[in-house]
Amino acid sequence: MEKKKELTDTLLLAYLSLSGFSITPKNNGRLIAFEVSGESLTDTIETFYRNPEVKILDFITHYKNIRSMIFNLRGQGGRQ
């Protein structure tokens, strides 16, 4: 069963992206959130909070991609 959540935590989003989840930016007025969908989403979020070992350079790359999406949306005035 595919699950969807709307999240704003960029570090969590980077970890989910690194773990292979689909991440789509959404503008909710002043706040830019991301819709995340995929199998075992809740389990992966719980794993993130247990402080798993990750390849740091890969994680940073995913984090930078998330931040870039935010800046791009803000630069467009939040338009998609």
Topology:
Elements: E1 3-7, H1 10-18, E2 22-28, E3 31-38, H2 41-48, H3 56-75
Antiparallel strand pairs: 1-3, 2-3
Helix pairs in contact: 1-3
How would you characterize this protein structure?
- This protein is α+β, with helices and mostly antiparallel strands.
- It has one domain (3-75): Alpha-Beta Plaits, CATH 3.30.70.
- It contains 3 helices and 3 strands, in the order βαββαα.
- It has helices at 10-18, 41-48, 56-75, and strands at residues 3-7, 22-28, 31-38.
- The protein has a 3-stranded antiparallel sheet with strand order 1-3-2.
- Strand 2 (22-28) and strand 3 form a beta hairpin.
- Helix 1 (10-18) packs across helix 3 (56-75).
- The longest helix is centred in the last third of the chain and has 20 residues, at 56-75.
- The chain is globular.
- The termini are far apart.
- The mean pLDDT is 90.
Give the key terms.
80 residues, alpha+beta, Alpha-Beta Plaits, 3-stranded antiparallel sheet, 46% helix
How many H/I helical runs?
3
In the predicted model, the low-confidence regions spanning at least 5 consecutive residues are none
CATH class: Alpha Beta
Category from helices, strands and their pairing: alpha+beta
Number of strands: 3
**Largest beta sheet, briefly?**
3 strands, antiparallel
CATH overall fold name: Alpha-Beta Plaits
Question: What is the strand content?
Answer: 25-35%
Strand order of the largest sheet: 1-3-2
- Choose one word for the global shape: globular
Please tell me the CATH architecture by its name: 2-Layer Sandwich
